[in-house]
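Apologies for my clumsy wording, but could you write out the amino acids of a protein and the tokens describing how it folds?
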Amino acid sequence: MRSNLQSPGKLSATKNKKNHLAAALPSLITLLLLLLVWQILVSVSHTSARIISSPWGIWQAMVVNRSSLLTAAYTTSCEAFIGFILAIGAGILLGVGLYVSHTFYASFYPLLVGAQTLPIITIAPLFVIWFGYGSLGKIVLVAVFSLFPIAIQTCRGLIAVPRYFRDVALTCGATSPWELWHVHIRVAARQIFSGIRISATYIFATAATAEYIGARNGIGVWMQAAYNSFQTPMVFAATVVIIILTGLVMALVSLAERLMLGPAEEDSID
């Protein structure tokens, strides 16, 4: 006879999947209701599409202009992804440097915290002047603006690691560099991923803003052309694409964290 019993691992995975679906359902329902209300209000009030577009109008703009929109999204995605990857590597190394050297920490940590308040609208024109209208300037700008949260969260995560982890490793014969990379980094990994997740939320917005100020292609250029021709549905369409791309990157970061570190504690609670 075939057994209908499932292994504990499968039961746990099924339960976690149901929990995630149950947690996402209220947000999905709320989003659908908001879109429905938005559609009804625009239709009933007969508001001009140049002032505000309905969800259906935005969808139509995305379908009609899908070819040019996808091309622009591809350019922006390449700039954002490359800059993001560079920021992850540089941010973690910078955070480790802040943790290892007290002099480096005292000199640069306050500057890093303050640098997060710099408005991109004042910095992006300088990158256009320095790097021109190509993709290089956008990649560098995304990398620079994205590494701050990663470096700060890496440093904070390493500082928060209990001292006894280091003491045990050194007592067992480990060297300080080995202990740093194999113990401290692993224990602080959740907080490092927290910094990566923060950075992921605005890499596409950063790239698109830089393109809006000066570029040859990309979502920012596409949005500027739509704005100049008073095509409000196209402006909304570009915004929707940025939101979708950001959601995909956030999902990839969460997947990487889960694969490398396992489920978070809140996911393991029955």
